[in-house]
Amino acid sequence: MRVLVLGAGLIGLSVADELLRRGHRVTVVDPAPGQGTSYAAAGMLSPGSEVWHGEAEILRLGLRSLALWPSYAERLGVSLHCTGTLLVGQDRGDLQQVERQAELLAGLGDRPRMLTGPQARAAEPTLGPRVVGGALLPEDHSVDPREVLAALLDRVGRPAKWLSGRPERRTSRRTSCDVAAAATGTQDVSKVGKYDATVVATGATLPEPWRHLVRGVRGEILRGHTDDPPKRTVRAWVHGQPVYVVPRPGGDLVIGATNEEHDVPPEVTFGGVFTLVEAARALLPGLDRATFTEALARDRPATSDNLPLLGPAPDRDDVVLAAGFFRHGVLLAPLAARLVADHLESGSVEPLLDPGRFTRSTTEGARC
Ligand SMILES: Cc1cc2nc3c(=O)[nH]c(=O)nc-3n(C[C@H](O)[C@H](O)[C@H](O)COP(=O)(O)OP(=O)(O)OC[C@H]3O[C@@H](n4cnc5c(N)ncnc54)[C@H](O)[C@@H]3O)c2cc1C
Asked: Fewest CB within a 10 Å sphere: which of 14, 171, 184, 237?
C-alpha cells in the first residue's frame, strides 16, 4: 500500500516504521518533526502507576505494549532502563494514595510489594528522611523519548514539511476538503489522492472534522543533571502533590509533571515550576545540588474516555486515526504501530479503540 502519515511524533513515526518493515510505501509529513508532545515526555513505561479507577482497559493495553518494549528498543538500538518504579508517600495521607493505588492494582491482578519507610529508603537511598512508605513495581521500564524519536527519524527518513502549497491556518474549518489536503495545506487533492490510506497521527490537534475528539491537557516538565540520581523512577505524593523523577543513564533526570485542562497555548508557568521543584526537593533533598537544564510544556492529547483513537475515522474508511494517547503515548507506541498496520492490512479494529465509538453512541442515543 501507499500510505501517507500525518504527524512525526512517536505515534506517527512508529506507525511509519512498522509499515515500512512490512513492505509498504510510506510518506510522512510534519511541519516540526519530533517537536510535539513526544519531545516533552518523561518516558515512563509504567502501566500500573498510571492506571486509575475505571481504566482497567488502559492497564491491559499498557501491559501488552510494555511486553513489546524490550524487543522494540533492541531493534531501534535505544537503551531501556529496567529498574522498576518506586511509588512513595511523604506523609500518612500520601501513603494512603500509594495504598489505594496498590489495592487498585491488586484488584486488577497485579499486587505490588508494599514497603515501610526504611525499606523504601534502603531500596532508594536518595529518598529524604520523611518518606513514610511505598510500593515497588519491579516490572516497569523507562526510555528517553528523544532517543526513540531520533532512532525512528533515522529509520523513516526526514519527513516532508508539507505536501505542497502553504500550511492551512489552524483556525479554519473546511470539513468538505480532503483531510490530508486540509491538514497539509495543499489544495491539490490529486497529489493526496495517490495514497491508498492516510494515517492521522497529529497528536493533540486533529484536523477537522475530528478536531473535537481530542483535547489538550497541559503538562509542564523539567530537566536537569545530578551526580547522585535515583536508581529508578520515583513517583510520589508529597503532601497531596503528585510528582515523579525519572533518571536517565549518565545523571540526567526529568521532573514532572503538571496536569492542567486549558485552552491556551502550552507554556511554562512559574506556578508549574515552583510546584514541581518544591515537591521534588522535599522527596529527594539531594536535588538541591542538581543543575537545571530545561523547562518545557506540551499538550497531552486526551479523549473523553482516556482511551486512544485507533482505527478508521468516522465516515472515512480511507483515513485512519492514531491519536488521543493522553499520558500513555510512549508506552503504547509499539502496540499502536502494530494495530494500525494490522488494520490497514486486514481491516481489524479493537472495538474499545474504534474512533467511531463516540459517534455511534450519540446516534444510538438519538434513536432511543
Ligand atoms: C509532560 C509530559 C510527560 C509525559 N510523560 C509520558 C510518559 O512518561 N510515558 C508515556 O507513555 N507518555 C507520556 N506522555 C504522553 C505522551 O507524550 C503522548 O501521549 C505522546 O507523545 C503522543 O504522541 P503523538 O505522536 O500522538 O503526538 P506528538 O508527539 O505531539 O506528535 C504529533 C506531531 O504531529 C504534527 N502535526 C500537527 N499537526 C499536523 C498537521 N496538520 N500535519 C502534519 N503534522 C502535524 C506535530 O508537529 C507533531 O510533531 C507525557 C506527556 C507530557 C506532556
From this structure: 171
Is residue 328 a part of any domain in this protein?
yes
Distance of CA 37 to the CA centre of its chain: 8
Rounded distance from Cα 197 to ligand 1 centre (Å): 21
Q: Is 60 contained in some domain?
A: no
Q: Is 42 in the pocket of ligand 1 (CB under 6 A)?
A: yes
Q: Can you read off the three cell numbers belonging to residue 27? A: 510518506
Residues 174-193 have pLDDT tens digits of 322 355 555 555 544 445 55
Q: Where are the alpha helices (DSSP H) in the chain?
A: 10-21, 37-40, 47-50, 56-76, 92-107, 117-123, 145-156, 179-184, 189-192, 270-283, 329-346, 356-367
**∠ at Cα 166 (161, 171), nearest 5°?**
100
For 265-310, how does the pLDDT look when each residue is reduced to its tens digit (9 = 90+)? 899 999 999 999 999 999 999 999 999 999 999 999 999 999 999 9
pLDDT digits (tens, 9 = 90+) for 204-240: 999 999 999 999 999 999 999 999 999 999 999 999 9
Distance 40 CA to ligand 1 centre (A): 8
The residue-averaged pLDDT of 106-114 equals 87
Residue 29 Cα: closest atom of ligand 1: 43
367 C-alpha vs ligand 1 centroid, how far in Å?
Answer: 36
Co-location of 233 and 293 in the same domain: yes
Q: Where residue 125 sits, what CATH number does that domain have?
A: 3.30.9.10
Instruction: For the chain, give the percent of residues with pLDDT over 70.
Output: 89
Dist. CA 157 → ligand 1 center (Å): 19
Query: How many structural domains are present in the chain?
Result: 2
Q: Using CA of residue 331, residue 337, residue 340, residue 346, what is the dihedral sign?
A: negative
User: Cell 526537593 appears where?
Assistant: 281
Quote the mean pLDDT of the chain: 89
CB-CB contact of 19 with 145 (8 Å) = no
